Amino acid sequence: MNNLLSKMLGCALVSTLLPLQFAYAQIEKDLPKNHTVSLTFHDVRDDVLKEGDRDIYAIQTKNLAQFFDWLSQSDWKPIRLKDIEEARKQGKELPHNSILLTFDDGALSSYSRVFPLLKQYQIPVVFALPTSWLNGNTQAGYEAYGQGNLVNWKQVREMQASGLAEFASHSDDLHHGVLANPQGNEQPAATSYAYLKSQKRYETDVEYQQRILQDLKKSYAVLKKEVGVEPKAIIWPYGAVNEQLEKLSQEAGFIFLSV
């Protein structure tokens, strides 16, 4: 897929923002025209730095606030998915030093901690939602974040109405591993052909493609129904993607994909 999200950084900010800021200073010199940096976050908490808790997928609330404050005073320009779409379809140039911020998984902190900061600093972001998690159709979300720690659709719609939040798919129910071989190893559900233990065989090409396409179409439909707009992008769980997934995501209706 010929998308403009070709310069990617997946970062979990835990302790300090200074290394990240220095890194951005270097990227700023090297970033080609009409390219953007993408920075991915997950959970936002107040207890990340307590002894014994080194959650690499969470950032301290005060550190995120400091980052937003720094970003608002820097030369970096936060952009929206629609800016990238216009650059592709209408030939508009992206701002120099553009940056796309994403928050994966639909953690409740997206609403309770991130959203207030978005309003304070007027920074747009993309939230990638695994739709089955929000609908309570799987235990995976509860296992990842705990009972009651995911956003609900009412909160999603409130964020959407602000104009500061866009919502992408994080799949419907591919945010987990599948049995990938007879030895019992698990691999990301999106990229791996499942090993069917009871039948002692792997999924066929057709079975794999049907499983993935059905999931993507369901996620697309749920987001369109609940958020009220057609989702533009899918952000793959674990950053796991292959050429087949690119084609299937287009078939499901997504314009962009990102890791």
UniProtKB/TrEMBL annotation:
Keywords: Signal
GO terms of molecular function: hydrolase activity, acting on carbon-nitrogen (but not peptide) bonds
Signal peptide positions (record): 1-25
Claim: Signal is one of the keywords in the record: yes
UniProt cross-references to Pfam families, sorted A to Z: Polysacc_deac_1
Single Gene Ontology BP annotation: cell adhesion involved in biofilm formation
Regions crossing the membrane: none
Domain of life: Bacteria
Residues annotated as domain NodB homology: 97-259
PANTHER family registered for this protein in UniProt: POLY-BETA-1,6-N-ACETYL-D-GLUCOSAMINE N-DEACETYLASE, PTHR34216
Protein name per Swiss-Prot or TrEMBL: Polysaccharide deacetylase
Organism annotation: Acinetobacter baumannii
